[in-house]
Amino acid sequence: MTVYFIGAGPGAADLITVRGARTLAACQVCLYAGSLVPRELLAECPEDARLVDTAQLNLDEITGELVRAHEAGLDVARLHSGDPSVFSAVAEQMRRLDAAGVPYEVVPGVPAFAAAAAALKRELTVPTVGQTVILTRIAQRATAMPPGEDLATLGRSGALLVLHLAAGYVDRVVEELLPFYGADCPTAVVALASRPDEVILRGTLADIAGQVKEAGIVRTAVIMVGRTLGASQFRDSHLYSAERDRHVC
C-alpha cells in the first residue's frame, strides 16, 4: 500500500487542500505531529483509523509504524504541518522508505510563509522593489547550516528574507542583518499564522526584537525582513498593463 506525506497547512484546519483532506479520509492509519497539526483535522480520518501522535517518537519508531502499516496492506497518511517541501524532515523519512521498498506520494500544503504573508496582507514580490524571496533559518541547537548559507552571506543579496525557527534568537537575527538592511528596514513577525491565537508584529530591524520579547514569542513563528514589506510607491506590473500586447504569447 502507499504512504502519503500530506501538508496539513500552517494551522487553520480549513487550510488543508481538498486533495489532502480526501487522501486523509481514505487512509486507515494516520501519523501526525500532535504539537503542530490541529486536532480538528483528525476528524477527516475514518472512524476506525489508527491514529499515532509522533511528537514523542524518533525517526526509527516513525519509520517502523509506516513500514508495518504498509506490510499490513494499509494506506498511511503522514500529516506534516505546513508544506512538506520545506523544513519538514520528510527527506529522511522518504530515504528510509526507499530503502525499505515502501511506495509513497507527497501531497503539498500551504506553507507557513504564505500564511504569514496573507496575515500581513502583503505580496512578497513587488515590481522594481524586490523579486526574490529567500527561505532560511539560523544555526543553533538544530542541524548546522551549510557553508555559504549564513545570514551574513544571504543578507548581502538584499532579498526578502523569511526565517523559520528563529524567533527565539531574534537578537542575533537583528545583529547579523543590520549591516546589510539598515535599522529602518521593514520587518515583521507572524506567530501561529492562520490560527485563532495568531500574533502579528510589524516594525523595523531597530524595534522588532523588543516587540518579539514583549509578546513572549519564542517558537511557531516566521520572521520577515525586506523592503517589499513596506513598499507603497512602485511601478505597476507589466502583467495587467494597458500597454501590453495581449495577442503576443
From TrEMBL:
Pfam families: TP_methylase. GO terms for molecular function: precorrin-4 C11-methyltransferase activity. Pathway: Cofactor biosynthesis; adenosylcobalamin biosynthesis. Its EC number is 2.1.1.133. It comes from the Bacteria. GO terms for biological process: methylation. The keyword DNA-binding does not apply. Residues 2-208 form the Tetrapyrrole methylase domain. Keywords: Cobalamin biosynthesis, Methyltransferase, S-adenosyl-L-methionine, Transferase. It is an enzyme of class 2 (transferase). InterPro entries: 4pyrrol_Mease, 4pyrrol_Methylase_sf, 4pyrrole_Mease_sub1, 4pyrrole_Mease_sub2, Cbl_synth_CobM/CibF, Siro_Cobalamin_biosynth, Uropor_MeTrfase_CS. Belongs to the precorrin methyltransferase family. This is Precorrin-4 C(11)-methyltransferase. It comes from Streptomyces anatolicus. The lineage of its organism: Bacteria, Bacillati, Actinomycetota, Actinomycetes, Kitasatosporales. The gene is cobM.
